[in-house]
């Protein structure tokens, strides 16, 4: 089976970007599937998963500024540990906060 295609694994961000192009921008499913080399059934499965799991975002407890309570608690714990001079894992990345990259 030397002619078999290797499977492509899309990240969650890639899946959302593809779905957004269909749902928000109105790009046809056939065009997206051809562009990304996927079957329409896969795109519709992603869409089904997106709508079924989307409620999790709205059900999460919220803090005073709209961020999830869990994220606020983790950030506060990291700040307390830092103020005590304790070494901790890096603080969680907050929504909208740019990701830092180390130069190679």
The helix-and-strand class reads mainly alpha
Task: State the major sheet.
Answer: none
**Shape summary:** elongated
Helix segment tally: 5
Number of E strands? 0
Distance N terminus to C terminus? 38 Å
Q: Which bin fits the share of residues in helices?
A: 40-55%
Low-confidence stretches: none
Global Rg: 20 Å
- Order of SSEs, N→C? HHHHH
What number is the mean pLDDT? 77
Number of separate domains: 2
User: Roughly what fraction of the amino acids lie in strands?
Assistant: under 5%
Question: How would you describe what is shown here?
Answer:
This protein has two domains: 12-57; 61-91. The chain starts with 11 loop residues before the first helix and ends in a 21-residue tail after the last helix. The chain is elongated and about 60 Å long. The chain has 104 residues and is an all-alpha fold. It has helices at 12-23, 29-36, 40-53, 55-59, 69-83. Helix 1 packs across helix 3.
């Amino acid at each position: 089976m030397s002619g078999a295609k290797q499977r492509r694994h899309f990240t969650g961000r890639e899946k959302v970007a593809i779905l957004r192009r269909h749902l928000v921008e109105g790009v046809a499913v056939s065009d997206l599937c051809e562009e990304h080399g996927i079957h329409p059934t896969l795109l519709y499965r992603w869409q089904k998963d997106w709508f079924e799991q989307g409620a999790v975002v709205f059900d999460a407890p919220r803090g005073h500024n709209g961020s999830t309570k869990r994220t606020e608690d983790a950030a506060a714990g990291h700040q307390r540990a830092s103020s005590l001079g304790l070494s901790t894992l890096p603080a969680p990345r907050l929504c909208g906060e740019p990701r830092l990259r180390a130069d190679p």
